[in-house]
Amino acid sequence: MMNLLQKKLGFSPITGLALCLAASASSASEGRYSINHPGYQQECGSCHVAYPPQMLSSASWRAVMGGLDKHFGTDASLDEKTHSQILRFLLANAGKRSTDSNGKPLLRITETRGFIHEHSEELPQDIWKHPAVKTAANCQACHTAADKGDYSERSLRLPKGVMK
Ligand code: HEC
Ligand code: HEC
């Protein structure tokens, strides 16, 4: 990510600070999200990373949590108590922006405008089919600390042979 790094380092500290503050208003501080909830991390972080709640709206989380028995081809059902604890955590931390498409809440972060925007500029089109990535939902293929909610540039490593 040299080009990104150089872009960042090219700023004066003052501008950099201002940009950091501006960025943190919209996207958490430098790409770091809190996923701290033991039940959520345990139950929703076993097949894939526990995704940042901020990346979907409350309507989307309700839709995801309402269909866990048919969850992307698997059964991710929970007992009632765990279900309501996790739902409460997700709703309390959900993104404020709508993640609807044609009036229906999206179930995938990877289909939201925010995600597409963050990932269209620097990445080659066929990146998601790379054998080390397989699917865009596999955040950890590139964000090596995604399991801790850390999507900052510091922990970003593209798989070998991916750089444009
Ligand atoms: C039994 C395995 C399993 C468990 C447990 C599980 N998931 Fe998933 N989840 C999947 C699979 C498989 C996909 C689809 C991944 C893909 O497209 O490559 C997925 C995808 C997702 C996506 C969409 C990812 C994208 O493309 O943006 C969300 C959101 C999600 N899961 C939330 C949850 C939540 C919340 C929980 C806990 C209540 C949970 N998952 C538990 C298997 C699981
Ligand atoms: C193939 C590699 C790859 C995968 C897989 C991937 N990303 Fe990214 N992501 C990137 C790159 C490259 C950037 C751009 C970094 C930049 O421009 O600062 C990025 C940027 C981001 C940012 C902005 C970070 C910031 O500095 O604010 C977020 C948030 C993010 N990704 C979340 C995700 C999530 C959530 C997933 C999984 C659902 C995911 N990414 C999957 C490569 C990837």
Can I get a quick summary?
The protein has 164 residues and is an all-alpha fold. The chain has six helices and two strands, in the order αααααββα. α4 runs antiparallel to α5.
Description:
Strands 1-2 form a two-stranded antiparallel ribbon. α4 runs antiparallel to α5. It has 164 residues and is mainly α. It is globular and about 45 Å long. Residues 1-27 have low confidence and may be disordered. The protein is 37% helix and 2% strand. It has helices at residues 2-9, 13-27, 38-44, 58-65, 80-93, 113-120, and strands spanning 100-101, 104-105. It has one domain (29-155). It contains 6 helices and 2 strands. It binds heme C (2 copies).
Number of helices: 6
- The gross shape turns out to be globular
Unreliable spans: 1-27
* Spatial sequence of strands, sheet with the most strands: 1-2
Describe the largest sheet. 2 strands, antiparallel
Q: H/E series, N to C?
A: HHHHHEEH
Radius of gyration: 17 Å
